[in-house]
Design goal:
Layout lengths: L2 H35 L4 H50 L7 E9 L6 E9 L6 E3 L4 E2 L2 E2 L2 E2 L4 E3 L13 E9 L2 H8 L9 E2 L3 E2 L1 E4 L9 E2 L13
Antiparallel strand pairs: 1-2, 2-8, 3-11, 4-10, 5-6, 5-9, 7-8, 11-12
């Protein structure tokens, strides 16, 4: 049992004991006073004080057992729910870090052309996460794989993103002149898009002891990354 649970249990028992003793004493004294006012003998006064005090203590104990057990069951149910939720997020972290949007800009007039990508993602998991800054895989455009390196240029920190916070991931996809011409002069540019399904940015726990299973950011078909018109 955790220290917090032990302290809670001790405090519950102490409060219950004080209530039993105080309540029984009050009831017994009231009963004794009532019996005394009626002129009953001392032994009957003591008898009724003992009976009423014992009945009160028994009833109070029974009620407290029910209440404490109910509170304990609620705590245990909540703890189990949180434990199960944490286990699910730990094993399937990629499902709980959704991408909220992706933007792309084309820079064809620089000495070496490139496309700049900005990915906006959100940490819906219960863990504090980080993104591995080393991208793997590749990007395609119009089913054509782009051959040049991908360079991370993000100005935002990729580590220690807490629950319910979002962040941005920025990088360059360098292009050859031929790839740039293919994209710019694509007759189907309104239908074609940048496909990031083979690009891997890995989500990890901010600390190894969390046990978070590394998984990639997931891109789905709703994120068809097209150049702005």
């Amino acid at each position: 049992m955790a220290l917090k649970d032990r302290l809670t249990s001790i405090s519950d028992n102490l409060i219950a004991a004080l209530l039993y003793a105080g309540g029984a004493a009050v009831i017994a004294s009231l009963s004794a006073g009532s019996a005394y006012s009626q002129g009953l003998p001392l032994y009957l006064i003591l008898f009724w004080a003992l009976v009423t005090g014992s009945l009160f203590a028994f009833a109070a104990n029974y009620i407290s057992i029910i209440l404490i057990r109910h509170a304990k069951d609620r705590r245990e149910a909540k703890d189990k729910w949180l434990h199960d939720l944490a286990a699910k997020h730990r094993e399937e972290i990629g499902r709980y870090v959704p991408i909220l949007g992706i933007e792309v800009s084309l820079y064809g007039n620089s000495p070496t052309p490139y496309a700049k990508f900005v990915i906006w993602y959100y940490n819906a998991s219960v863990y504090t996460i980080s993104i591995d800054p080393t991208p793997k895989g590749s990007i395609s455009y119009g089913k054509r794989r782009l051959t040049q390196p991908i360079e991370l240029i993000t100005q935002y920190r990729l580590d220690n993103l807490k629950h319910s916070f979002s962040n941005f991931l920025e990088f360059y996809q360098w292009l050859t002149k031929e790839e740039l011409d293919f994209i710019v002069n694509d007759p189907n540019k309104h239908d074609n898009y940048f496909d990031l399904s083979q690009l891997i940015f890995t989500i990890v726990g901010s600390k190894p002891e969390m046990g978070v299973v590394p998984q990639p950011l997931h891109y789905d078909l709703k994120h068809k990354v097209k150049l702005p018109r």
